[in-house]
Amino acid sequence: MPAVAEEHSLLTDYGDFESSLPQQPEAVADLRRRGVARFEELGFPSTRQEEWRFTNVAPVAKTSYVRAGGRLHGLTAAKLEPFQIPGTVDLVFVNGRYSEELSRQEEFPSGVFAGSLAAAMAWNPDLVSAHLGRYAGLDHPFVALNSAHVEDGAFVYVPRGVKLEQTLHLLFVATAGDQATVSYPRNLIVVDESAEATVVESYCGYQGDVYFTCPVTEIVGGANSVVDHYRLGEESLDAFHLGTLKIHLERDANFFTHSVNHGGAIVRNDIQAYLGGEGIHCTLNGLYLGRKKQLVDHHMWVDHAKPHCHSYELFKGILEDQSRAVFNGRIKVHEDAQKTDAKQSSQHLLLSDKALAQSNPQLEIFADDVRCTHGSTTGQIDEEALFYLRSRGIGEEAAKSLLTYAFAVEVLQEFRLETVRKDLEEFLFTRLPKGDVVRQAV
Question: How far apart are CA 154 and CA 96, in angstroms?
């Protein structure tokens, strides 16, 4: 085996893992084989590679892990309460594996499936095989690593013309014992033609736990579908999270995804949307908060392949202490994608002289009748606005928190799911100094 497989615990026991798996569709087994072969070729990325220039994953590579499996490590329903969202159907995954014991069971409309990917392989192997691995390419090292370990995760299928009234909460909880653990959730969400669904995808863990979560989520929005998607990161500050979200949209689809992150030592989210039909509306928003020595990296890519499509991106980062952020946003407009309307904005608010943000917006336009804009700003709190608030009797600390809240809430206001928005607003009140003053002011 190549050196990466011999030297790193992520692949040293791979043969034992593979032999322990139940029988699965041949297409899934083939995806695993191709995944492990590709990761052996690629290995861990280094800062010498352009896509990873500002994100050093050496701490991830140097850590020795054990496969977490389905061990609960004392996890109970009561311990999940801080991560639950009122009014949603909780589907709980512990270290990437579905937990029927901790999930809330509910009746869904005929033809809808929401639960374990492993169970879906037995329920409808042809449906799973038709989509799994089709959109997330193996040229990304951590997609390859995840694909090598496909075992379980979430599968959501909403058939043609069905509006799923329930909001699904895919809650991924990582646990760790005496040794750092690793898990590979693999998620597939298929919303068929003229169907609608709202899905919240959460990743969380407990402070002090050391673990590595390497998820891949593929979302398919069929023609004229409506998908409202939220991705929340509440990992341990000692944990690593390297995730990929791949979105494939067809004609007249309406897709919304909102990413919020405030946990993890090293966090990277690769979010890529392919607009493969005319008349698509795609919104990708994000808010991230960094503190201590956290690193949060968002790599975005919106691929306009057809005419008359619209994409909107707004990402905001709030950085304290010695935290760092990376935003790399790329919009590609193909030659046939006339009448494209694409907007991208990234903004960073630095609350410390030692905080650092790297932003790199990019446009690749091969069509001549388009409207595309991008913008990036990085700065500290506006001194004039701060003076204005202080001149009206608001203390300096409360005034700074009020301005920080105003900066963040622009993203939260775009949330169509009120329960998630309110929970995150409350989190901001507790996170900000003098948050009670801010709560009263707004």
Answer: 9
Q: What is the pLDDT of residue 176?
A: 86
Q: What are phi and psi of 441, to 5 degrees?
A: -75, -30
pLDDT for position 105: 81
What value, to the nearest 5°, has the Cα angle with vertex 256 and ends 114 and 138? Answer: 70
What Å distances lie between residue 164 and 128, 225, 235, 247, CA to CA? 20, 12, 29, 19
58-77 burial string, b = 16+ CB within 10 Å, else e? eebbebebbbbeebeeebee
Phi-psi domain of 270 (left: phi exceeds 0; alpha: psi -120 through 50; beta: other): beta
| Chain position carrying tokens 């139940």 | 22
Query: What distance lies between CA 88 and its chain's CA centroid?
Result: 19
Sole residue written with tokens 């799911």: 417
Beta bridge partners of 231: 201, 259
pLDDT digits (tens, 9 = 90+) for 144-200: 999 999 999 999 999 999 999 999 999 999 998 788 999 999 999 999 999 999 999
CA-based radius of gyration for the chain: 21
Q: How big is the chain, counted in residues?
A: 442
Who contacts 124 (Cβ-Cβ below 8 Å, separation ≥6)?
113, 157
The answer to whether 137 and 168 are in contact (CB under 8 A) is: no
Residues of the chain with pLDDT under 50: 1-6
Token pair recorded at residue 297: 């990296």
Coil, helix or strand at residue 440:
helix
Helix (H, G, I), strand (E, B) or coil at 46: coil
What is the identity of the amino acid at 193? E
Structure tokens at 419: 């329960």
Q: What is the pTM of this model?
A: 0.95
Q: So what's the pLDDT on residue 291?
A: 96
CA–CA distance, 3 with 43 (Å, rounded to integer): 9
Q: Show Cβ contacts of residue 82 under 8 Å, excluding neighbours closer than 6 positions.
A: none
Cα end-to-end distance, the chain, whole Å: 59
Instruction: Give CB contacts under 8 A, 24+ apart, made by 403-407.
Output: 404/318, 404/349, 404/351, 404/432, 405/429, 405/432, 405/438, 405/442, 407/316, 407/318, 407/347, 407/349
How many CB atoms lie under 10 A from the CB of residue 242?
A: 26
Pairing of strands 113-116, 154-158: antiparallel
